[in-house]
Structures
1.
Amino acid sequence: MSQLNDIAIFSALKQAGIPSQDQPAFYALAISEATGDPNATGPVIHSNDCSNGQQAIGLFQIVLACHPDVSRSCALDPVCAAKKAYAISGNGTNFSPWSSFGNQTYKDAFSKGKSIVATLYGITHVTDPITGSTPVLGGVQKAGQDVLGIPGQLAQAGLNKISEVVKSFAPIALLAVAFIVVLIMALAELRGKAVQEILPVPKSQ
């Protein structure tokens, strides 16, 4: 299997059951750790823990010796590996096992991942797993997206419904305006007649 494109990676994340708001972080993990290659194998690790002399493998660079519940075939399968990576991270709360999050090289891929979920799901507020910040995508609120916490698709549907209602009442509004205009003209005419009746008629000389 060759390097996965963005659509394939997000498809794997979705199939793995990772919540949409957490997907940018795991997209960043797949890109920054394995360049999107589900068969990626990292260098031999030299450390004082379970990873010493081992290699991280797969799209999410899992060290099998440190996670005996993860088989090699699972680590090399994007969906299975995504499920395990999500569990290893404490459901998206701890990315310390991966060096790209420690040295901040995940950031560019994370930013791209946020843009992708904004397009896919209308989500513009995504929490950075390291800094904990939740900046709005692009620094501005996009129309129809995440309005008052409502996902973009729902917000847009609401706006469309309001537009339909307004359009349906447009003919009634025009009739009401026409009626008011006619009423004003009628009242003006009646007032004119009343004034003529009240004012004395000039006597002829």
2.
Amino acid sequence: MKLKKKSLQLGQILCAPFIVFLILLRCGIPVANAQTPQQIAKKALAATVLLVMKDDSGKPLGLGSGFFVDTNFIATNFHVIEGATRGTAKLVGEQTEYPIEVFTAMDETHDLAILQVAVPDVQPLPLGDSDTIEIGDTVYVAGNPKGYFEGTFSDGIISAIRGDSTSKRLQMTAPVSSGSSGGPVINGSGEVIGVSFATFRDGQNLNFAIPSNYLKGLIACTQGITKFNQGQYAAAIVEFDIATRLNPDYAAAYMWRGIVKYELGQRAAAIADFDTVIQLRIQRRLQNRETTKADIGQD
């Protein structure tokens, strides 16, 4: 009987934390990794930059936002840097303008770009899994509306998830204005789950973000290129596999993976990747053709 009594007490002890966990969930109390809006704002704004893009003559082409995803690497929208040959990045609340050293990677299809900028002592923002986002989730955005309202932080919810696995977009009520494109969209745990890129001006609270998993795919492709250049072919293929899984219509990832496989003597696999590149580029051109026809009123 004593043994049974002790077993019952042990079971009660083991179950107690689980019961508390269920109570917290039922009461709507955050149980792990949640941060206050103030904590999220502090970290987000410290990693957010104002981008000023220029042409060959130094003439400003436009403004945008970006954020650090790694030491000296900034993520932003492709349309923010499109047509530019140079530019600067300035941290929120500071005066120093740092020159953009390299346009490291670009994904025009998903409107993403990665820039290299030597800025000391900036803590990058962690990237979350955008596939876990659900309608109704609270999100926060940081950016520089119009370039004048520097360091703006606001909140909203995910109001819809549009598109399919290769062209998914997050619709949200958190405001996005001109100048905020390229800024981070952050969940309640302080992780970036999207990149602000558009707003529908003729509607209310119709703002959009690119899921972070596409950005993670772009970063993986960049890391794969680095490892290939270092002669680490097997490690490079691992990165390109990640890139194609997260960003299945990013042609550059297939192209580079094909190059590595060719170097390894895997000719059939390389040809398959090159064929995918051709198919994706044809699809892209057909999409551009249809968009152009629609713009000029042709059927």
3.
Amino acid sequence: SDEAYEESNGHPDLVNTAVPKTSKASIGKRNLRGKAVIKTQTKTKKKPKRAGKARKKRLTPLDVSNLILSKNIKTETELHALAQEQREQGKTDVVEFILNRSPKTLADILSTTWQMKGAREKIARSKKSRMDLLQEASNSDCVSGCNGDWLQCAKEVLQNNGINISCFANSVRESLTNGRKKHHNVMIVGPANCGKTFLLKPLK
């Protein structure tokens, strides 16, 4: 125990001796370490941030693309008109977006937006044959301005030029079915304004 001990020859007398210097040094070092930790913790303590003004969110190309679709915007002029309309209402997001982009970038956004919109339909159409597309067109409504008069006019053009209607129809059908091949192509020749373009333009 600490009360019973033996001293070696020449060892200093330990009776009523104060704490050794090494012990005091160790205690002091521990105290300093504790103070350093407290000091470090005090320094790293962060002050609460002040509530500042919220940063305004800018429009992204995706935002503008969605706007183009929702407003059915097809041209840059229509996009400019919408931006001006919103500016007059106190909204400047679209105006800022346009002014920070080049005309080429805006044109690319418009073009890409509508290309993506019609991509699935285009893929589905590419998988159909020409005759399938022709059949669908024949079952749908006429284009604006036609009023169902094209067929009658086409018959008159063929008759006026001495072309057999059934023969012409069969030639066009074979060309659509077989594609561009020798002895299957259809070529219409004649003077200007005789209806050549009129006969085949609906197939475009």
